[in-house]
């Protein structure tokens, strides 16, 4: 407890008794009675041979229960095990290589490290670090090609994470890093540590081929990453049809069914090969295991097929479509729960282009805006 606040009252013996109060603050000053604590108590680390001088091997984690002026900053010292000065330890507790290690020369080092706090008198603690030198990487990384589909309203893409590169390496201790060619960084970024791909705002309609590579420090491997950007037209929203699927997650639909269903759907509803099928959004149905897919079909001449026409086509081809995935319903109007009696049900659809949903698998990623369906009774 760092302090107490006491309210003290003095009361006299008169009639009536009179009193006054005063507040007394008592601060408890800290004595440096706690040593620094290493977490964990001792460390093990590895470094591959032939890594350049200055390679980071380990980050020490030290805490102190004393107040801030009796704790950090800590002073680190390698007491034993570094007689040939193969290692350096910086003020932040990062252990680095000071030589290029060779597996044939030595396979293991044991260092005793001291941490000293900033109190008076100073308190010290010790830890042991076992560093193993392993053979350099012998296997190249392997990465899965990634295809990304982005659907956005006209010139209104806010940016964000659009997918993740999946890469592996048979060398157990290899650390993979991802890089993107510099001229593409004005539109995209790649997280160097985990391979997440980030698109910046304002992407134009079209196809982008990203020059991405993954490296284990010795081998560098290119990765095929293709990004397709499709901008929605406002007219599409007035001519949409929803197909509701049963028992499927968005990720499973994207990774397992979307390509096949898209092909089957094109054959079912397109009147001419030049017509275009636009998948606008996919979205889970709240409180269920169902999934809605919103789409529209654009004629070669530029207009859009009416929902009633598409629904007729879908109804005729439903059994064929269900060879790919189970369909729960085909919706033009979703007025369940409304009793309009002699009135008509009107549906309106709105798109929130700044609320993007990213459904990502190892091979394919689908990024689309969230949509809202509103219904009301009309005369």
What does this molecule look like?
The protein has 379 residues and is mainly β. The chain is built from 4 helices and 26 strands. It has helices at 234-237, 250-269, 307-316, 318-321, and strands at 3-11, 19-27, 37-38, 43-48, 56-59, 62-63, 75-80, 87-89, 94-97, 108-116, 124-134, 142-143, 146-153, 160-164, 167-168, 177-180, 188-190, 196-199, 206-215, 220-232, 241-245, 276-284, 291-298, 327-331, 344-360, 364-378. The chain is flat and about 85 Å long. The N and C termini lie far apart (71 Å). This is FAT3 protein. Residues 4-38, 39-143, 154-245 form the Cadherin domain. It is found in: Membrane.
Keywords summarizing the entry:
26 strands; mainly beta; Immunoglobulin-like; 379 residues; single chain; 10% helix; 4-stranded mixed β-sheet
Question: Looking at the structure, what is the overall shape?
Answer: flat
Helix content: 10-25%
Uncertain stretches: none
Strand content: over 45%
User: N-to-C terminal Cα separation, in Å?
Assistant: 71 Å
CATH topology of the domain at 37-134: Immunoglobulin-like
Q: What's the mean pLDDT score?
A: 90
CATH class of the domain at 37-134: Mainly Beta
- Class from secondary-structure proportions: mainly beta
Largest sheet: 6 strands, mixed
CATH superfamily label of the domain at 37-134: Cadherins
Beta strands, count: 26
Spatially, the strands of the biggest sheet line up as 16-19-20-13-26-25
What count of helical segments does DSSP give? 4
Q: What would CATH call the architecture of the domain at 37-134?
A: Sandwich
Give me the strand/helix succession: EEEEEEEEEEEEEEEEEEEEHEHEEHHEEE
Instruction: Please state the CA-atom Rg, rounded to the nearest Å.
Output: 33 Å
């Amino acid at each position: 407890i760092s302090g107490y606040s006491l309210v003290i009252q003095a009361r006299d013996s008169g009639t009536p008794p009179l009193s006054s109060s005063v507040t007394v603050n008592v601060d408890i000053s800290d004595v440096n009675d706690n040593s620094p604590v290493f977490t964990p108590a001792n460390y093990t680390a590895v470094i591959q041979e032939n890594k350049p001088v200055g390679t980071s091997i380990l980050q020490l984690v030290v805490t102190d229960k004393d107040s801030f002026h009796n704790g950090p900053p800590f002073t680190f010292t390698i007491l034993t095990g570094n007689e040939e000065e193969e290692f350096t330890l910086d003020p932040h507790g990062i252990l680095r290589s000071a030589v290029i290690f060779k597996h044939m020369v030595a396979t293991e080092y044991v260092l005793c490290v001291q941490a000293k706090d900033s109190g008076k008198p100073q308190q010290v603690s010790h830890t042991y670090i076992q560093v193993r030198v392993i053979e350099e990487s012998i296997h190249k990384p392997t990465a899965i090609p990634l295809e990304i589909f982005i659907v956005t309203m006209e010139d209104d893409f806010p940016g964000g994470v659009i997918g993740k590169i999946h890469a592996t390496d048979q060398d157990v201790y290899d650390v993979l890093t991802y890089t993107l060619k510099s001229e593409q960084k004005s539109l995209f970024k790649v997280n160097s540590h985990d391979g997440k791909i980030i698109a910046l705002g304002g992407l134009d309609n079209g196809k982008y081929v990203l020059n991405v590579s993954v490296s284990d420090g010795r081998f560098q491997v290119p990765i095929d990453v293709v990004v397709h950007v499709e901008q929605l037209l406002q007219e599409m929203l007035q001519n949409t049809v929803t197909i509701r699927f049963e028992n499927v997650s968005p990720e499973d639909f994207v990774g397992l069914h979307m390509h096949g269903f898209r092909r089957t759907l094109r054959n079912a509803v397109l009147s001419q090969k030049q017509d275009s099928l636009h998948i606008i959004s996919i979205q889970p149905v709240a409180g269920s295991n169902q999934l809605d897919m919103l789409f529209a079909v654009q004629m070669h001449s530029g207009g859009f097929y009416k929902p009633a026409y598409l629904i007729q086509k879908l109804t005729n081809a439903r059994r064929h479509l269900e060879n790919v995935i189970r369909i729960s319903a085909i919706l033009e109007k979703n007025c369940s729960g409304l009793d309009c009696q002699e009135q008509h049900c009107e549906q309106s659809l709105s798109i929130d282009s700044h609320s993007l949903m990213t459904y990502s698998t190892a091979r394919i990623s689908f990024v689309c805006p969230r949509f809202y369906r509103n219904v009301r009774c009309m005369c």
